[in-house]
């Protein structure tokens, strides 16, 4: 909320998570000489998806504001040396978003690829969501497994504010698990999610209770 603009880029082929910003006072990204590219991580594999989201609801001691984390998935095969993973990056408390240090925290690293094919890999996208719209709490995490043939839901740990527990997964044999959307479809305050299964040409809708 400081008026500055940053771009967070998940690099697949370059296998880097980069933070890009302009030193120009007008946030002008068209002046090449003013651009700064800071590599946050180059050891996490081929990156697939990144989202800026407040995972821990914590307040920064320097600004008194909440500071978002970076939720990331990579996209690896079973043969890759780096495991298929979901993780997030947390900024050091009190640090500046642009110049501070980011620490990687692993959520899960066993999205085993089950579907055979050229360049089959996992996982796909990760999305934060709140199952109960009437309660403010740390978000749950949904992961589309892609060629892992599974969907996954992770719940915030009650014993460790930096960790998550796998609480649900569903196998869709011989199918690629695709995109997901969340909405309260029946108006009861609990969200439903719609999940696309590619080869079946179908969308499943799940309800929380």
Your description of this structure?
The chain is built from no helices and 14 strands. The strands form four sheets. It has a four-stranded antiparallel β-sheet, with no helix packed on it. A four-stranded antiparallel β-sheet has the order 8-9-10-11, with no helix packed on it. Strand 10 and strand 11 form a beta hairpin. It is globular, with a radius of gyration of 18 Å. The model has no long low-confidence stretch (mean pLDDT 94).
Separation of termini? 36 Å
Strands of the biggest beta sheet: in what spatial order? 4-5-6-7
Percent of residues in helices comes to under 10%
General form? globular
The gyration radius over C-alpha positions equals: 18 Å
Overall structural class, as computed from helix and strand content, comes to mainly beta
Give the tags.
14 strands; 4-stranded antiparallel sheet; 0% helix; 209 residues
Per-chain topology:
Layout: E1 6-11, E2 16-22, E3 35-41, E4 47-53, E5 69-74, E6 86-91, E7 102-108, E8 126-129, E9 140-144, E10 150-156, E11 164-171, E12 177-183, E13 192-197, E14 202-207
Antiparallel strand pairs: 1-2, 2-3, 4-5, 5-6, 6-7, 8-9, 9-10, 10-11, 12-13, 13-14
């Amino acid at each position: 909320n400081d008026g500055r603009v940053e771009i967070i880029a998940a690099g697949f082929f370059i296998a880097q998570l980069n933070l890009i910003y302009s030193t120009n006072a007008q946030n002008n990204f068209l002046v090449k000489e003013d651009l700064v590219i800071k590599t946050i991580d180059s050891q996490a594999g081929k990156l697939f998806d990144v989202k800026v989201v407040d995972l821990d609801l914590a307040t920064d001691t320097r600004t008194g504001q909440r500071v978002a984390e970076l939720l990331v998935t990579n996209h690896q095969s079973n043969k890759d040396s780096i495991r298929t993973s979901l993780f997030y990056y947390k900024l050091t408390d009190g640090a500046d978003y642009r110049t501070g240090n980011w620490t990687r925290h692993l959520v899960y690293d066993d999205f085993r690829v089950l579907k055979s094919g050229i360049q089959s890999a996992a996982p796909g996208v990760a999305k934060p969501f709140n199952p109960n719209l009437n309660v403010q709490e740390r978000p749950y995490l949904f992961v589309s497994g892609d060629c892992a043939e599974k969907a996954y839901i992770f719940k915030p740990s009650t014993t460790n504010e930096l960790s998550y527990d796998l609480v649900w997964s569903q196998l869709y044999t011989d199918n690629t698990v695709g995109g997901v959307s969340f909405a309260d479809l029946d108006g009861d305050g609990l969200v439903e999610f719609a999940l696309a299964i590619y080869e079946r040409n179908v969308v499943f809708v799940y309800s929380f209770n």
